[in-house]
Design goal:
single chain, UDP-N-acetylmuramoyl-L-alanine:D-glutamate ligase, 6-stranded mixed β-sheet, globular
Length: about 250
C-alpha cells in the first residue's frame, strides 16, 4: 500500500526546527510522502527570527498545482502564510480538493516574533471554514476571539494548552454539536520546544491521510509530539528543535 501523500503549505525555517523542515521530518517519520509549497523564506534559529521574505502568491499556487496535478494529495497541512493574498490563493486552490485540511494559524513564533498581521488573520476565515481542524495555541486562540468566537464560526478546532500555566497540559478538541474533548498530559519541562505546533499539525494531517478518525489522529499526534520533546537533541542556545527522528509514532 503506498504511503499517504501529504502536502504542507508553510514557511521555511533555516535552522530546521520548525516550518516546512519540521513538517517534512514528521510526515516522513510517520510513514507519509511529504510534498511542500513554500510560502516564505525565513532566517531563524533557536533564538528567534531575524529576516523574512514572503514569496509571491502565484508561486505558491504553482507549487500547489504542480504537486496536486501529478503526485496527488491525501491530506494538507497549512502553516505560516505571510500575507492575505497568499491566504486567499491557498483557499482558492484547496477549495477544489476533497481531502482533509489541517490549519495551524501561525501568527507568533515561539521566539515571540510576529509572523502574521491583522489583515492576514482576517483572511484566515476562509481557511478555517475549509479545514477539518484548526489548531490555535493560547495566543492565537485569543487573537481569533477566543472559544466563544470560534464556536460561533461553527468550525472544529483544537485549543492547544502547551503555552498555558500549570503542571498539566490540556488540549481541547471542540467539534460543533459535541461536548468538548479534553486531552491531558503532564507538562514536559524543557526549553526545546521549537516547532511543536508545526509538528503536531503535520502529524495530525499524516494520520488523517492514513484514514484515521479525527479524534484518534489528534491523540496519536499528541503522543508523537510528546515523544519528540523527550528525544530533543539539545541543539541551540534558545528554544531548541525536537527529536523527530527518535520519536515514536
Amino acid at each position: 500500500m503506498p504511503p499517504p501523500r501529504i502536502l504542507t503549505i508553510a514557511g521555511s525555517d533555516s535552522s530546521g526546527g520548525a516550518g516546512i523542515q519540521a513538517d517534512i521530518k514528521t510526515i516522513t517519520v510517520l510513514g507519509g510522502y511529504a510534498m511542500s509549497a513554500i510560502t516564505a523564506i525565513t532566517a531563524q534559529n533557536t533564538l528567534g527570527v531575524t529576516a523574512v521574505e514572503v514569496l509571491v502568491p502565484a508561486l505558491i499556487a504553482a507549487q500547489i498545482d504542480a504537486c496536486v496535478s501529478d503526485i496527488g494529495v491525501d491530506a494538507v497541512k497549512i502553516g505560516m502564510l505571510g500575507s492575505p493574498e497568499i491566504a486567499a490563493v491557498v483557499a482558492d486552490r484547496l477549495g477544489a480538493l476533497a481531502v482533509p485540511v489541517v490549519f495551524d494559524p501561525v501568527m507568533v513564533a515561539t521566539s515571540g516574533s510576529v509572523l502574521a498581521d491583522a489583515a492576514t488573520i482576517a483572511a484566515f476565515e476562509r481557511l478555517m471554514q475549509l479545514a477539518v481542524l484548526t489548531t490555535p495555541n493560547v495566543a492565537e486562540l485569543a487573537a481569533l476571539g477566543g472559544h466563544q468566537a470560534m464556536q460561533a464560526r461553527g468550525v472544529t478546532y483544537l485549543a492547544k494548552g502547551g503555552d498555558g500555566e500549570g503542571e498539566r497540559v490540556d488540549d481541547v478538541l471542540v467539534v460543533p454539536g459535541e461536548e468538548p474533548h479534553v486531552m491531558s498530559g503532564s507538562r514536559i519541562h524543557t526549553r526545546h520546544t521549537h516547532g511543536t505546533g508545526c509538528t503536531l499539525s503535520s502529524a495530525i494531517a499524516t494520520y488523517l491521510g492514513k484514514g484515521l478518525p479525527l479524534a484518534e489522529a489528534v491523540d496519536r499526534a499528541r503522543l508523537f509530539v510528546r515523544s519528540a520533546l523527550r528525544a530533543a537533541p539539545g541543539f541551540g542556545a534558545g528554544s531548541g528543535p525536537l527529536g523527530h527522528g527518535e520519536a515514536r509514532g
